[in-house]
Amino acid sequence: MSEYIGIIFPTEAKANEGSLVLKDLHAEGSIALSGMVVVAKDATGTLSVKKSVDKRHLGTAAGALIGGLAGLPGGLVGVVFGAAGGALLGRAADAINLEDLTGVFDKVSRELPPGNTAIVAEVTEQTQGNLDTHIHAIGGTIIRE
Fold first, then answer.
1. 126 φ/ψ angles, rounded to the nearest 5 degrees
2. Which 3-state string (H, E, C) describes the chain?
3. Which pLDDT does position 117 carry in this prediction?
4. Is 17 within 8 Å of 106 (Cβ atoms)?
5. Can you give the residue ranges of every domain in the chain?
6. For residue 59, which of 27, 31, 37, 30 has the smallest C-alpha distance?
């Protein structure tokens, strides 16, 4: 079953390493990676998009959904994540409970310390615990909703 996870890293370089780990685990079949977005929080608490990857090219529904998210309580955070992960959000509108995705985005935005970087990804774990082992080995903290 597909789920949304957040992964917090202390640096952007570690988050980039984490995104490579997710891609490698996908390639070897340990997980199915549907999409991910990498965001960073600067010292002032402002979020910015570093990278957005949609494995299935599912961005078409994102525009309308982003507009809806902008009005949700969460304001700027919803807008930033919505704009960054438009493809992920489009996928969520089609196949996954939107509450799960917004719950993960909210939790990551609250728990992401200034100066840190996070990945939000849609994954299906084929091998239980393998993802956690690899992410913890490179200094990441996984957030599940």
1. -85, -35
2. CCEEEEEEECCHHHHHHHHHHHHHHHHHCCEEEEEEEEEEECCCCCEEEEEEEECCCCHHHHHHHHHHHHCCCCHHHHHHHHHHCHHHHHHHHHHCCHHHHHHHHHHHHHHCCCCCEEEEEEEEECCCCHHHHHHHHCCCEEEEC
3. 94
4. no
5. 3-56+100-144
6. 37
Structure tokens at 128: 């239980």
Model confidence pLDDT, tens digit, residues 120-144: 888 999 887 899 999 999 999 999 8
Whether 116 shows a pLDDT value over 90: the answer reads yes
Look at the pTM and tell me if it is higher than 0.90: no
Q: Is the dihedral of CA 27, 31, 34, 36 positive or negative?
A: negative
